[in-house]
Design brief:
The complex is a heterodimer of chains A (228) and B (533).
Chain A (H helix, E strand, L loop, with lengths): L27 H36 L1 H9 L3 H27 L2 H31 L15 H38 L8 H25 L6
Helix pairs in contact in A: 1-5, 1-6, 2-5, 3-4, 3-6, 4-5, 5-6
Chain B lengths: L12 H5 L4 H29 L10 H36 L8 H23 L13 H5 L4 H28 L12 H33 L12 H35 L6 H14 L15 H13 L1 H15 L8 H24 L1 H7 L3 H31 L5 H28 L13 H31 L49
Helix pairs in contact in B: 2-3, 2-4, 2-16, 3-4, 3-6, 3-7, 3-8, 3-14, 4-6, 6-7, 7-8, 7-9, 8-11, 8-12, 8-14, 9-11, 11-12, 12-14, 12-15, 14-15, 15-16
The chains are: A mainly alpha (228), B mainly alpha (533).
Chain lengths: 228, 533
């Protein structure tokens, strides 16, 4: 059986009056476990959400490999690679932030959260530069789309997928930045303690997930047809 | 009535609109889904009025397209899917496992607001002139051809999906982490198992329809190409993605109802449910198999013959867990001490109608027969037997059974039995003729039809008006009972289960101290505590 029943052992134990304890939980351990499980379930939902996009991508890449390779060649690998490094680094600082929260190092936690925030914002900045280039080059699908004659129809499908996949990912980044701001505020207020750092841990899970999505997006969109 | 309970714990508007009490949120949902039920029902009335005569004389064909679209959208996304989980589930899930609330009360309230926001978008689409794509939003009609309000409707469905996801998430975490000491998985009432299975589908399926509908909206709005054949896009891919959610969604609708029926059958037969663990695992089995059968909606849509064969076989498999449930309920009733109160009438109605709906589902899983009746009234009759005969019967049965717990008062038994009878009769008169119509070849989604179909259509329309009366009655007498009903006491049915051990209506915190569970579900061998009737 799952270890959850243990959470009920002391309904009004010593830590029952911790300010973060919600009224319907017996203790902080139960509350943290619930929050973590909740985030994992949410991430499963997210996998299915992005899954719909990945399936669509797979179907069309199988149908139109040449157009996808041609479309991929128009993407800026340098900026994409820089963004990959930026995002992986932000995942590292996030993980270090969770560790700092566990250790009760409030200043260190705030520093790591701030760096994570800045890296996330940098990612979005670089992404908007890329979007701007695509706009100038008429690579946004629709009536104004321009591309070599051979692939002009199928390349629109590639760029439609490029924009929706990176766009939905960017939206998750924006939400992530909002969460990081709230976490920074919580840390600044001193609400994060070694006893109760669940918000940081759960936010970290989300941040890493968004990072992992990019790890799949980058090769699928930027690196097609560049091998061999 | 107890002096302090969740209903009199604060009176102002904000005590409701800002509440985090799962019981009050359940009532917020109850009010809003009832509204959508009657809006969706009004469209059904217009449809049946139009079909009373063969000529398309009451509304134009464009208007008719909008009527059945809005009927479908309102009923599927804003009534059937949230119906039992968001009302009875919200009210009962924490209580049945001995918890004070759901794991995330704020998220629970947020999910109601998200539902309302989605509803506002859809109602906007309605007043702005309606939408005519059918509730299925098939491309390229929805992305290119339709000139109606596809985007607000799509956004409404997209938004309300997140309310469903968050409810499912809340139930899953609550079931894992909030059970009282001694409440092991196999001591949980079967309603909890069906809620858990439903939540799995909500969490796994809903995000796929969300992204699919988003793609439709983006394609329509910005002329992107995801499903556009002019760019080499594949409309059949849309259908795959759509049914990947929308077939399991049928189980989001019917699994909760099955959970209710298990509770009703046990309580009104005074017996443990026969084969408890089989019924519990059948819920999970339906949830899992439900994800593997979506292709049976696409036998004529141009998927490969081999895919059709596999989907056909897998669809037959769903009959196994469904039949396990039906047989086990029947076996529970065998030599049970059955009392024929209103909820039990609904439970029996469910078993009968669900069996007809399920068996005709097997017809439709057979590729050859399905090709013959695709897009005919046979399909309409089949899924109304599942969704209305199944889900709605279970919902009403559950609402009557737990009404004394929710309101602290009894509904008028005679009127309730009468309307259960009216609903059963009206339902069969409405939908049974549609099986015949479909088999004879009457297509769905047309506002005019050849004169030889008129007799059966008039029967169906007559049944619908009886059904309408049957639905209005409970709404009226349940509201009446809120003020004038007899005080019910904690356990009017003499049922077991944690919800019957606390006062009616329950106090805000449900349990003054966390209960310690030492017994199995439906243990009717011991004398029942708190039973005064």
């Amino acid at each position: 059986m799952l270890p959850d029943a243990a959470g009920h052992a002391s309904p009004h134990g010593d830590r029952a009056h911790h300010p973060a304890l919600a009224h319907h939980f017996d203790n902080l351990a139960q509350q943290s476990e619930a929050a973590t499980l909740g985030m994992w379930v949410f991430l499963v939902t997210e996998v299915l959400f992005f899954g719909g996009l990945f399936v669509t991508y797979a179907v069309y890449r199988r149908l139109y490999p040449a157009a996808f390779a041609a479309g991929s060649h128009e993407l800026d690998v340098t900026l994409g690679s820089i963004n990959t490094i930026v995002l992986i680094t932000s995942s590292l600082t996030m993980a270090l932030g969770v560790h700092a929260a566990q250790m009760g190092e409030r200043k260190l936690l705030m520093a790591f959260l701030a760096v994570t925030l800045i890296l996330g914002a940098a990612f979005l900045g670089i992404k908007s530069v890329e979007y701007y280039h695509k706009f100038v080059e008429h690579h946004v699908p629709g009536p104004a789309f321009q591309f070599e004659k051979e692939h002009i129809r199928h390349a629109q499908i590639f760029f439609s997928l490029y924009f929706i996949m990176t766009g939905v990912h960017a939206l998750h980044m924006v939400i992530g930045l909002g969460i990081m701001l709230v976490m920074f505020w919580l840390a600044w207020r001193g609400a994060i303690t070694p006893e109760y750092y669940s918000p940081i841990e759960v936010s970290g899970l989300y941040w890493h997930f968004v990072d992992i999505v990019w790890i799949f997006l980058f090769p699928l969109l930027y690196l097609l047809g560049r091998h061999g | 009535m107890p002096p302090r309970h969740y209903l009199n714990n604060g009176y102002g508007i904000s005590s409701w609109l800002l509440t985090r009490d799962h019981k009050r949120i359940a009532l917020l949902y109850l009010a809003s889904i009832t509204l959508f039920f009657f809006v969706g029902g009004a469209f059904a009335v217009l449809i049946r009025l139009e079909l009373a005569t063969p000529a398309g004389d009451l509304v134009s064909d464009e208007t008719y397209n909008k009527l059945f679209t809005l009927h479908g959208v309102m009923m599927v996304f804003f009534f059937l899917i949230p119906s039992i989980p968001a009302t009875l589930g919200n009210f009962l899930v924490p209580i049945m496992i001995g918890a004070k609330d759901l794991a995330f009360p704020k998220l629970n309230l947020a999910s109601w607001y998200i539902y309302v926001l989605g509803g506002v978008f859809t109602l906007y689409a309605l007043v702005a002139g309606g939408v005519d794509t059918g509730w299925t939003f098939y491309t390229p009609f929805s992305t290119v051809s339709s000139t109606t309000n596809v985007i607000p409707t799509a956004l409404g469905v997209f938004i309300t999906g997140f309310s469903s996801i968050l409810t499912g998430l809340n139930f899953i975490v609550t079931t894992h982490r909030m059970r009282a000491p001694g409440m092991t998985w196999f001591r949980m009432p079967l309603f909890m198992w069906s809620m858990y299975a439903t939540s799995l589908i909500m969490v796994l399926g809903t995000p796929v329809i969300a992204i699919t509908i988003l793609l439709v909206a983006v394609e329509r709005l910005f002329h992107f190409g995801f499903f556009d054949p002019r760019l080499g896009g594949d409309p059949v891919l849309f259908q795959h993605l759509f049914w990947f959610y929308s077939h399991p969604a049928v189980y989001i609708m019917v699994l909760p109802s099955m959970g209710v029926v298990s509770e009703l059958v046990a309580a009104f037969c005074r017996k443990q449910v026969f084969g408890y663990s089989f019924v519990a695992f059948a819920s999970l089995g339906i949830a899992v198999l439900g994800f593997l059968v979506w292709g049976h909606h696409m036998f004529v849509a141009g998927q490969s013959v081999y895919a059709a064969l596999v989907f056909s076989i897998l669809s037959f498999l769903v009959a196994i867990p469904s039949a396990i449930k039906v047989f086990n309920w029947t076996a529970t009733m065998y030599r049970g001490s059955i009392s024929w109160q209103t909820p039990m009438l609904y439970a029996i109605g469910f078993i009968g109608l669900f069996t007809i709906g399920g068996l005709t589902g097997l017809f439709l899983a057979a590729v050859g027969l399905d090709v013959h009746v695709t897009d005919t009234y046979f399909i309409i009759a089949h899924f109304h037997y599942i969704m209305v005969g199944g889900t709605l019967m279970g919902y009403l049965g559950g609402l009557h059974y737990w009404w004394p717990k929710i309101s602290g008062r009894l509904y008028p038994e005679f009127l309730a039995k009468l309307s259960a009878g009216i609903i059963f009769l009206g339902f069969n008169l409405t939908f049974f003729p549609q099986f015949l119509l479909g088999y004879l070849g009457m297509p769905r989604r047309y506002h005019a039809y050849p004169p030889e179909f008129q007799v059966l259509n008039v029967l169906s329309s007559a049944g619908a008006s009886i059904l309408g009366v049957g639905y209005l009655l409970p709404m009226l007498y349940l509201m009446w009972s809120l003020r004038y009903g007899r005080i019910s006491g904690a356990n009017p049915w003499g049922a077991v289960g944690l919800e019957w051990t606390i006062a009616s209506p329950p106090p805000t915190e449900n349990f003054s101290e966390t209960p310690i569970v030492t017994w199995d579900a439906y243990d009717y061998r011991k004398p029942v505590a708190g039973h005064v009737a």
